[in-house]
Design goal:
This is DUF1203 domain-containing protein. InterPro entries: DUF1203 (IPR009593). It is built from 3 helices and 9 strands, in the order E-E-H-E-E-H-E-E-E-H-E-E. Strand 1 and strand 2 form a beta hairpin. The chain is α+β, with helices and mostly antiparallel strands and 167 residues long.
């Protein structure tokens, strides 16, 4: 868990029980697509919040983060429910153990997208060079008592990187 300016949130990778299902059939109903990362590696893995190694075999799956959060919490994301591509290890891994912000999700350009406990989007915040850090952006969002969860996303592709939740 991280504590910033009196507000507490927890960074979360995709849950192990969800990963088990995704490794068979993803949230779009398809089997995982196995790919070999290039010679540089570095693809963001949502199972452990790390980065792939050069030439590592990883799985590309469709994932619905709000849908799964809604099932757990009773939220109703409605039109904000979306399915998008994420990379995971094709076999069980050690997962994310925290605390703090996983280094594997850091990057030059990120978006923080905040959601209410009911599942409605409250807004987004661009993080880029010279702007706030992920920690500062999360502290700003969690200062708002309406915020229940914040997703960290990549700007270029809009891909989901990690979820944070109010604890």
């Amino acid at each position: 868990m991280s504590e910033n300016h009196g507000e507490i949130y927890e960074m979360r990778a995709i849950a192990p029980e969800a990963l088990k299902l995704l490794r068979t059939t993803d949230d779009a109903g398809h089997p995982p697509r196995l790919v070999v990362d290039d010679e540089e590696g570095g693809s963001p893995l949502r199972c452990c919040l790390g980065r792939s190694r050069p030439y590592e075999t990883i799985a590309l799956v469709s994932y619905a983060p709000l849908r799964r959060w809604a099932r757990e919490t009773g939220a109703g994301p409605g039109p904000y429910d979306e399915v998008g591509p994420v990379f995971i290890h094709p076999e069980e891994c050690d997962g994310w153990t925290g605390p703090g912000i996983a280094e594997g999700i850091r990057g030059r350009r990120r978006v923080l997208r905040a959601y209410s406990a009911e599942g409605s989007i409250l807004g987004g915040r661009l993080l880029d060079d010279g702007g706030p850090t992920i920690e500062e952006g999360l502290a700003e969002w969690y200062a708002d008592p309406r915020v229940a969860a914040v997703h960290v996303r990549a700007v270029e592709f809009g891909c989901f990187l990690a979820e944070t939740r109010r604890v």
